[in-house]
């Protein structure tokens, strides 16, 4: 036979159920509060991120504007003429040649670049990094071996056979100094006295071109290959070959028209 549950037990059970409902509702409200706080924090972080990006972008744009302004400053002395063409202000030191060319003293491209503070900063940073690398290498060698290890074997190898480089450079220098000049002197002395000016010019030009090809074209290459010059010495010979070729060509190009007119 079933017995009736006492009213006290029923009340306790209802009370426990009510407390569990309150706890669950309190936990749910606490979770909702945490979610709201997380959303607000995400919104705040997004706003801060946008502000920081805007500030960085503004600063970068200001830096770029300043760099462009400073890079344009060396060219502010260029002024437009009446015809719309760009002309430079005349320099204090200039020399006008007979053929109409005007030679003016002006700064080189590197000088104009070094007028910009950012370029100077990069240059100084490169020197500082090079010094730090050098000092760190010395410190590591001293710590590992207890002494300064100054090895110049690679330097001696790269600039080896300097005697061969010297006499090859001397041959090219003497040729560039004497042969184009005396060739133009000989050609100029006969140009106005002979009737066949075209034949004289062609003959002299072909002979000079052949000698130029042999001395300033094939001779440096033969010296480099035959003597198996190291990298730096080879570089010196080839660069001097190009320099002498440019100088001789410039001299003949500027002098030949003057001889033909006079």
From TrEMBL:
<dbReference type="InterPro" id="IPR014371">
    <property type="entry name" value="Oat_ACAT_DAG_ARE"/>
</dbReference>
<dbReference type="GO" id="GO:0033344">
    <property type="term" value="P:cholesterol efflux"/>
</dbReference>
<keyword id="KW-1133">Transmembrane helix</keyword>
<dbReference type="GO" id="GO:0034736">
    <property type="term" value="F:cholesterol O-acyltransferase activity"/>
</dbReference>
<keyword id="KW-0012">Acyltransferase</keyword>
<feature type="compositionally biased region" description="Basic and acidic residues">
    <location>
        <begin position="18"/>
        <end position="33"/>
    </location>
</feature>
<keyword id="KW-0808">Transferase</keyword>
<keyword id="KW-0472">Membrane</keyword>
<feature type="transmembrane region" description="Helical">
    <location>
        <begin position="198"/>
        <end position="225"/>
    </location>
</feature>
<protein>
    <recommendedName>
        <fullName>Sterol O-acyltransferase 2</fullName>
    </recommendedName>
</protein>
<keyword id="KW-0812">Transmembrane</keyword>
<dbReference type="GO" id="GO:0015485">
    <property type="term" value="F:cholesterol binding"/>
</dbReference>
<feature type="region of interest" description="Disordered">
    <location>
        <begin position="1"/>
        <end position="33"/>
    </location>
</feature>
<dbReference type="GO" id="GO:0008203">
    <property type="term" value="P:cholesterol metabolic process"/>
</dbReference>
<dbReference type="GO" id="GO:0000062">
    <property type="term" value="F:fatty-acyl-CoA binding"/>
</dbReference>
<keyword id="KW-0256">Endoplasmic reticulum</keyword>
<feature type="transmembrane region" description="Helical">
    <location>
        <begin position="122"/>
        <end position="143"/>
    </location>
</feature>
<feature type="transmembrane region" description="Helical">
    <location>
        <begin position="155"/>
        <end position="178"/>
    </location>
</feature>
<dbReference type="GO" id="GO:0005789">
    <property type="term" value="C:endoplasmic reticulum membrane"/>
</dbReference>
